[in-house]
Amino acid sequence: MGHREALLDGARRCLLERGYARTTARDLVAASDTNLASISYHFGSKEALLNEALQRCFDEYIGQITRIVFADPSATPLQRVRASWEALVRTVEQHRPLKVAFVEALAQAERVPELRAQLAECHERARATVADMVRASVAGLSDSTARQVASFLIAVYQGLQIQLLLDPHRAPTPDDLMTSLEIALPAALATERPPRQ
Fold first, then answer.
1. 16 in Cβ contact with 97 (< 8 Å)
2. What is the pTM assigned to this prediction?
3. What is the CATH T-level fold of the domain 47-190, as seen in this structure?
């Protein structure tokens, strides 16, 4: 394994063990068995290395959720939404260190424009992946509508993640969320709006 991959592997371990905010360049060097110059040479900065490692972790996480959502090829779109919420609840503790690291990175992004841009790109990639999932579940949607639905689903998913991280015993369950959809969606759709494609 070359220094670049060793650094990414070490950064992943540091994110999961120490978090984003507490990982130093020296931690990354120790975890990867490389040197400080390798960080600058391959990534430009410690933050850029941590961000790429964070992106890889989230790509793997989204891949896992995608496999769960599409495990039953005959599932309806709402059954797939429910499956994603159930997967989040089931795996929240398994992925807690990753999600906490992401929240730590978000907190620092307000004052670091490069970090903000990288995290925004991470979010955009997630939106594109979810939009692909939406199109695979609901035939005939335009790209823009699929992106809008994906943005809504991500907003609900991220809100549920935060609630589960803070207070899992009082966070809404997938049943709660589905009941809310069953009540709110028909009421929202009953108002007059122009038809969408």
1. yes
2. 0.81
3. Tetracycline Repressor; domain 2 (1.10.357)
